[in-house]
Design brief:
This protein has 472 residues and is of the alpha/beta class. The chain has helices at 50-58, 66-76, 91-104, 124-137, 155-162, 172-180, 197-202, 206-215, 231-240, 271-281, 294-306, 320-332, 342-345, 365-372, 393-403, 462-470; strands at 4-5, 81-84, 115-120, 145-148, 165-170, 191-194, 221-226, 245-248, 259-265, 286-290, 312-314, 337-340, 353-358, 382-388.
Length: 472
């Protein structure tokens, strides 16, 4: 069985490469054919329930995005969907609106400890944003909805599901905590949504997802979204979905046309000063800086702050309250520079980011596309600058091969003083102290005091990094 293809209407987004054939269970008898999306149609073409139409008008949403045009009619028909879509394409509304339309037509009572709709997402921030979207679109329906995420006490979440809810948005680990303590049952789930499935795979949640899926009824509708489609994700989709329609927009190998890209070749020790210069050149624009590790993000923030440049970090070691405060400040423009790891950035959905800086180049080429896609949104233009050290040139070649273009270099290569330690600061840069190192001698195991084991490894390589991902 192969995927049925939903054509996407013409737009700046183009159809993505997608596996031509993935083994799937036999199709369900009487499955509904794909409705054809109409380019240029408004939300009225979907015949959504009146409370939803009213909420969309209040949000000033008039024209659906390509993924919404392609997904909403299929999802409203009850058919399974597998979609390739990146952040910023409007995919949350693509699954939230059909779900709310379904609930509007059947407000039956939910039994204690059960949920009708289950949405799985990889991070706390993204889960919160999804729930906010459900509440915004469903403000005139007022569905019983709750959040189940780690990093906060479980007691309030147990109370939230005790009387039964219509929509539960959850991260996999906390969801299973609720199941294991018998606060929640999944055998009456009507709709299951997996959002950013590839990131859940990267974070080590694949076994949790398989267990969760096994606890839901086979008759459920499944809406499956991923920014990329590696083999493991394709296999998981094949096992979960029944005769799904396929939607694909914004291929992972494409970069936004309105993003100006350039690379600065720089010695590793000169990166802090180079970053500071980029920020000083346009101090009022929102800037998102990517580092490979949590510890690296904190080091960058300390360097910038000591030089008089305000910046904040967001990563898995921050408390939930800290992360929410920082994100709120960044959205409001009070915080101009945000330093993040790839995983933490999946929860950042902010328009108006003018500059993305790859302080550390990713060793996974697709991550580059995800990163720079944070700028040039909602019709705006943006800039993406990559700081490439000698040891990262192989990563740069892989990125250029993926996006099928050479990223132009700008400026002279930035060189650190001769004999400088890789983390030293070049002459003329602001003083950077770094974390306490004791007497400077390596401690047992070869790591300096204040340095975590596994830091500095290539992303995705070794159990040290995987452990840090899974702990997020």
């Amino acid at each position: 069985m192969t995927y049925s293809v939903i054509p996407t209407p013409s737009s700046t987004q183009t159809p993505a490469a997608f596996p031509a054939s993935i083994p799937l269970p036999a199709p369900v008898a009487g499955s509904i054919p794909n409705p054809a999306p109409v380019a240029g149609a408004g939300f009225a073409a979907f015949n959504l329930a009146a409370p939803l139409t009213r909420a969309l008008a209040e949000e000033n949403y008039t024209r659906p995005t390509p993924i919404q045009l392609a997904t909403i009619p299929v999802a409203m028909s009850g058919r399974d969907v597998v979609g390739i879509a990146q952040t910023g394409t409007g995919k949350t509304a693509a699954f939230a609106l059909p779900i709310l339309h379904r609930l509007a037509g059947d407000r039956r009572r939910v039994l204690p400890g059960e949920t009708r709709v289950l949405v799985l997402s990889p991070t706390r921030e993204l889960s919160g944003q999804i729930l906010d979207s459900f509440r915004a679109y469903g403000r005139h329906l007022r569905p019983a909805a709750a959040l189940a995420i780690g990093g906060v006490p479980i007691h309030g979440q147990r109370r939230a599901v005790a009387h039964g809810i219509e929509i539960l948005v959850a991260t996999p680990g906390r969801l299973l905590d609720l199941v294991d303590c018998r606060a929640l049952r999944l055998d009456r789930v009507e709709v299951l949504v997996l959002d950013e499935a590839d990131r859940m795979l990267d974070m080590g949640f694949i076994r949790d997802i398989r267990r969760i899926v096994a606890l839901t009824p086979p008759s459920r509708q499944t809406l499956f979204f991923s920014a990329t489609m590696p083999r493991e994700i394709a296999d998981l989709a094949g096992q979960m979905l029944r005769d799904p329609a396929r939607v694909a927009v914004t291929p992972v190998a494409s970069t936004a046309e309105r993003v100006s890209q350039r690379v600065i070749h720089v010695e590793r020790a000169a990166k802090p000063q180079t970053l500071a210069g980029l920020l000083e050149a346009a101090p009022q624009r929102l800037t998102l800086v990517f580092t490979r590790t949590k510890h690296g993000a904190d080091k960058v923030v300390r360097y910038l702050n000591r030089g008089g440049l305000a910046a904040e970090a967001i990563h898995g070691n921050k408390s939930q309250n800290q992360r929410e405060r920082v994100l709120a400040g960044f959205r409001a423009g009070r915080i101009k520079t945000l330093v993040a790891t790839d995983i933490a950035a999946r929860g950042i959905d902010v328009d108006g980011i003018g500059l993305v800086v790859n302080y550390d180049l990713p060793n996974i080429p697709e991550s580059y596309v995800h990163r720079i896609g944070r700028t040039a949104r909602a019709g705006a233009t943006g800039e993406a600058v990559s700081l490439c050290s000698g040891e990262e040139r192989a990563f740069l070649r892989d990125i250029e091969k993926l996006i099928r273009q050479n990223i132009p270099a700008s400026g002279r290569p930035q060189v650190a003083p001769a004999g400088a330690h890789p983390q030293a600061v070049p002459a003329g840069a602001r003083p950077y102290q770094g974390p306490p190192r004791g007497n400077g001698r390596p401690s047992r195991g070869g790591f300096h005091r204040g340095q975590r084991q596994g830091e500095g490894r290539r992303q995705g390589g070794g159990q040290g990094y995987r452990g840090r991902q899974a702990s997020f």
